[in-house]
Design goal:
The protein is of the alpha/beta class. The chain has seven helices and six strands; from the N terminus they run E-H-E-H-H-E-H-E-H-E-H-E-H. The protein has a single domain, classed as HAD superfamily/HAD-like (Rossmann fold, 3-Layer(aba) Sandwich), CATH 3.40.50. It has a six-stranded parallel beta sheet. The protein binds zinc ion.
Length: about 190
């Protein structure tokens, strides 16, 4: 079976910037490439699940999203790390144009992107995790039925301080989340 780390992108992997799509604006949060490498080394598949409503809003295209993901792959390669698969939701229920304006099942906290992964992986639900910085990430992980970690990067720290507590675990960043998972797995 496949144990999977589902990872939010903006605010978890890279520094949150509104509607990021340009490669020159991309910046890893400190320790992230090393954390992803540790997941690779420990036998996890790493799958990015990201809401990209900027496509629906017409701020950038699906091609831009793919170009950025290709760029991330190249940057991770320098650390010997890799992401196994990228899933993104280009939709928005209200602020969208054409085919992108719809009530989809993939926009987190929906689980469509996770369900789609069943086509590629035999997901070990007990050994898989969702890590993200926002309510939608935690909600999606819980709706799918896997353990969740809120990271303090992006919006996470503020949410926690405001009393949000629906996550299973909290980690200051992805590097700490990786250590936490390793600890839990060993025990
Ligand atoms: Zn969608």
């Amino acid at each position: 079976m496949d144990k999977i780390i589902f990872l939010d992108r903006d605010g978890t992997i890279n520094v949150e910037k509104n509607y990021l799509y340009k490669t020159e604006d991309f910046q890893f949060i400190s320790g992230v490439p090393e954390a992803i490498k540790s997941f690779n080394d420990n036998g996890y598949r790493v799958v990015v699940v990201t809401n990209q409503a900027g496509v629906a809003r017409g701020y950038y295209t699906e091609e831009d999203v793919k170009v950025l993901h290709h760029y991330i792959d190249g940057e991770l390669e320098k650390y010997g790390a890799h992401i196994d698969r990228y899933m993104y939701c280009p939709h928005h229920p209200v602020n969208g144009t054409g085919e992108y304006k719809c009530e989809c099942s993939c926009r987190k906290p929906g689980t469509g992107m996770f369900e789609k992964c069943r086509e590629y992986y035999d997901i070990d639900m007990d050994a898989s995790w969702m890590i993200g910085d926002n309510k939608g990430d935690i909600g999606a992980g819980k709706n799918f039925g896997i353990k969740t970690i809120l990271v303090g990067t992006g919006y996470g720290k503020q949410l926690r301080e405001e009393g949000y507590d629906e996550y299973d675990y909290y980690a200051s960043d992805l590097a700490e989340a990786a250590r936490l998972i390793n600890q839990i797995e060993v025990n």
